[in-house]
Amino acid sequence: MDAGKMTVSINKAINTQEAAVKEKHARTCILGTHHEKGAHTFWAAVNRLPLSSNAVLCWKFCHVFHKLLRDGHPNVLKDSLRYKNELIDMSRMWGHLSEGYGQLCSIYLKLLNTKMEFHTKNPRFPGNLQMTDRQLDEAGENDVNNFFQLTVEIFDYMEWELNLFHTVFKSLDMSRSVSVTAAGQCRLSPLIQVILDCSHLYDYTVKLLFKLHSCLPTDTLQGHRDRFMEQFQKLKDLFYRSSNLQYFKRLLQIPQLPENPPNFLRASALSEHISPVVLIPTGNSPPDSETLIETEDLVGMDSSSSQGMPGNKFDDLFGSSFSNDPFNFSSQNGMTRDDKDRLIEQLYKEIASLREDLGSFKAESHRLVINLKGRIQELEAELAEQKHLREQAVDENEFLRTELEDLKRRRQDTEKAQKSLTEIERKSIANEQRYTKLKEKYAELVQSHAELLRKNAEVTKQVTMAREAYEDVERSKKELEEAYQRVNEHTQRKAEEQMHQMEDLQVALESSKREVQLLKTTMETTKEESHILTQEAEDCVLQRLLQEAEYIIQESLLLLDEPLYTNGSISTDFLISRTLAAVESTEKLEEAWKKHVLETPGVSSLLPYVVQFAHRISDVILQGAQTRTSIELSDSCRACGTEALGYLSSLRSKDTQSEADCSKITTILKNITEIAQELRPPSLDIKEEQLGDLVEKEMAATAAAVEAAVSRIEVMLSKSRTDDTGVKLQVSERILSSCTDLMQGIRALILASKDLQKEIVESGLGTASTKEFYARNSRWTEGLISASKAVGWGATVMVDAADLVVQGQGKFEDLIVCSHEIAASTAQLVAASKVKAEKDSANLAKLQQASKVVNQNAAHVVASTKSAKSQIEETDTMDFSSLTLTQIKRQEMDSQVKVLELESQLQKEREKLGELRKKHYELAGVSEGWGDGKHLRFRRMSTVNKCID
After folding, report:
1. Which string of b and e fits 349-374 if b means at least 16 CB within 10 Å?
2. Which residue of 119, 166, 629, 750 has the fewest CB atoms within a 10 Å radius of its CB?
3. pLDDT by residue (tens digit) across 160-208?
4. Backbone angles phi, psi at 431, to 5 degrees
5. How far apart are CA 181 and CA 101, in angstroms?
């Protein structure tokens, strides 16, 4: 097909005549897209049409474009996306017209844009929306999140389909037979494509909602159900109204939706759902506008033919001459005129009776034809449904066959792997024993290394503080040394002068003993002067230190009135802690000063106490300004600073040193503590005690439970090595060793969780206390407590199960289930900790790595348990060589009965497990605050569920 012929068909299909698009032109356009593998010619022809100036032309363009998107080449969508913005602008332009085709064109263009967006996001859906159930599952990639989003997009798609449906009906005058007029058919003909789309969209919506209800809680899907109910009622009403129009009766059979919508809360209701099928009889197509006949004209013709027939019509039927009339008996039997009239009247009556019989026969024939056509349509619908069911069965059969082959292949691979694993485990038993001892030693080293690291951090902190104090002392020491140096130089000069004098006196020593005594007296005086100079240097350093302390406190008092420091961002608990520290520093300074006055040990002993006193008093003043707006608290802080300055000033003066008293400072600090206690929120104490202390208790309890579990496993392992031998010893050692590895991993996980928790609290603490942080984040704290409980409980239960298995009284399956539960609890703990942690946190990475180790060790426990079970089953081989035929038959029947009982029990346990998981999710969601965000709760449930599976 050449482009010219297709362009002619496009211009004939899209014209300004208010009549339906001819099917032959539309088919030519569709075939043209398949021939050229795209829609370049279509858009080249459409771009030359004045769509923005003629509403009928735009309406018919939408109809043809809808057909191409449904039945044209798949590249039609790709070629049309570049014109999307133009269609949107055209839709806005036509939306300003409230009459005629304006609103119809606006809604139809929005529908086409929605259809293009839907197929762009979901390329697996063909243009005609015909898909099998398997293809529908593949479109969602078997992911519940994808199915959830796909359902929302189908709802949006259906919404615009129903809007166009309703707007077309609203624009028609339903009191007249508009469906047989050219204008009516122009508006109704696009609804055929809408009906075909809606039937598939409704079917997919029902199937997707049943699938979502099998995976998600019912309250999560309440919005989906409400939206479906609204669209169900609209679609049911529109289908019913369409089926009564004569135009649609000739062209297609519209399905009727059920009386009541599907019950998605009952999973078995899916089997009651019947996919709606729209049947289009072969060869039927919309009539051309040139051959339409108005219904009123047809009725008028029938009524005119049913009236009494005039004389000339009678003459045409029976002849115009009585002479040639076979009923003219006047010439044969001599009948009179009256007899002839009676005969003619009788014949008229018989003719009327025959006409009535003929009309009844025609009506009966017409009714039978209608009934037969209806029966044919019902049979065709049943046939289409059976074909659809057959296609589904074929798809399901193919899917099951593929799964069966996959399972067989996996089973073979598993058997091979199991054999090789058994052989490897047998060879590695001796290595595992040595490795276990090394691992225990390594765990002890790791624990001691962690303790040393913590101690090292504390020592480093203390060294830093000591280094700062030491630097202050060094500076003071340097000043003292300089003073000492000056004194020593002065002393040396004096000594040199005295030496010269001594040399002079030695000459005259023998002449005068009195002069010698005088020289001794002079030497003693020189020593006293040196001591006085040293004391002056120390007093100078002390005065400088006290002056610097006063400057620190004065600076804090100046900042007390600044608005920046009165924002109330500091907690009362933090202020109380700083006040108590200031009281302690004040008391220590007082003791050190008394010791300095009495013993005179030197100024170096006073340095740390004076510096600490100044900084802590300044800290109290600044923190009190930022705690809460309180005039009494501000006055107390100012009074504290004033008294501290007075105390330091009295220490500087020798006259007032003996009268210096710091009791007023201590009293004011205690008063500040009482004010802070009154400003403390009354309801916070209970919350802090419930959460802050409870977190520490639960983490400590979990750590204690894990330590107890490790100790119990070591005792069981030692006992097994003493009491057991052979296969039993091998099984016990393998299981207990894997359990030991798992407990070591859990212990490392708890340590990492504590470090991360500490980091989270410190990063989010600010100037608040730890308890206040837990109170502000109560939801997160409760989730952390729940996760910690779950880990400790899982460790305890696993040890109990392992003890029973080693004793021969437990089940291997209990260990496997416990391993899965521990993996799930670990995931819950990591998720609870990850909520508040920074993405690039080193402690978070450490916690995630510890979680991976726990999961690997849990998987190792499962593998070891299964291997041990297989090893025990291999030793218990069944020997039927001594049984008779009757005994074998009897045991075979017993085995079959046992198999049926176990299968029934297995099914019941699976159902029970499903209900328990649902209840667990519900309770866990309430306790951990999952109700605040349903999408978040679902993501956590999915994470835990994957770990359990």
Report:
1. eeeeeeeeeeeeeeeeeeeeeeeeee
2. 629
3. 999 999 999 888 866 555 677 888 889 999 999 999 999 999 999 999 9
4. -65, -35
5. 16
Nearest to 782 by CA among 944, 926, 937: 926
Confidence of residue 648 (pLDDT cuts 50, 70, 90): confident
Residue with tokens 């996760």: 787
Contact 583, 644 (CB under 8 A): no
- Please name the residue ranges forming H helices in 38-132: 40-46, 55-71, 75-80, 84-95, 102-121
The mean pLDDT value of the chain amounts to 75
Q: Please give the C-alpha separations between residue 664 and each of 434, 558, 593, in angstroms, as whole numbers.
A: 70, 21, 17
Domain made up of 682-877: CATH architecture: Up-down Bundle (1.20)
Per-residue DSSP letter, 253: B
Instruction: Indicate the length of the chain as a whole number.
Output: 949
**Helical residues (DSSP H) of 172-294, grouped into ranges:** 182-188, 191-213, 222-243, 246-251
Instruction: In whole angstroms, give the CA distance from residue 65 to residue 17.
Output: 17
Residue 806 and residue 715 in contact, taking contact as beta carbons nearer than 8 Å: no
Q: What one-letter code names the amino acid at 209?
A: L
User: Which amino acid, one-letter code, is at 312?
Assistant: N
**pTM greater than 0.85 (yes/no):** no
Q: Which two tokens stand for residue 815?
A: 């260990």
Banded pLDDT at 1 (limits 50, 70, 90)? low
Closest CA to 532 of 498, 502, 474, 490: 490
CATH number, span 1-121: 1.25.40
Q: Give the DSSP H/E element, type plus range, for residue 399.
A: helix 337-427
**Highest-confidence segment of 200-204, 290-294, 709-713, 828-832:** 200-204
Distance CA 257, CA 241 (A): 12
C-alpha gyration radius of the chain: 50
Closest among 737, 743, 721 to 864, alpha carbons compared: 737
Per residue in 253-284, pLDDT (tens digit) is 888 888 889 998 888 888 888 888 887 765 44
| Inter-residue contact 139 to 204 (CB < 8 Å) | no
- The percentage of residues in the chain with a pLDDT greater than 70, rounded to a whole number, is 70
Query: What is the DSSP secondary-structure string of 168-181?
Result: HHHHS-TTS-GGGS
Phi-psi label, residue 765: left if phi above 0, alpha if psi -120 to 50, beta otherwise: alpha
Residue 332, both tokens: 């044969």
CB atoms within 10 A of CB 743: 26
* Three-state DSSP string of 730-770: HHHHHHHHHHHHHHHHHHHHHHHHHHHHHHHHHHHHCCCCH
Instruction: In whole angstroms, give the CA distance from residue 672 to residue 655.
Output: 31
Instruction: Find the helix packing angle between 3-13 and 23-36, rounded to 10°.
Output: 150
What span, in angstroms and rounded, lies between the C-alpha atoms of 583 and 597? 21
CATH architecture of the domain 448-679 equals: Up-down Bundle (1.20)
Contact 860, 741 (CB under 8 A): yes
**Which amino acid is present at 290?**
E
- Which phi and psi angles does 253 have, rounded to 5°? -100, 115
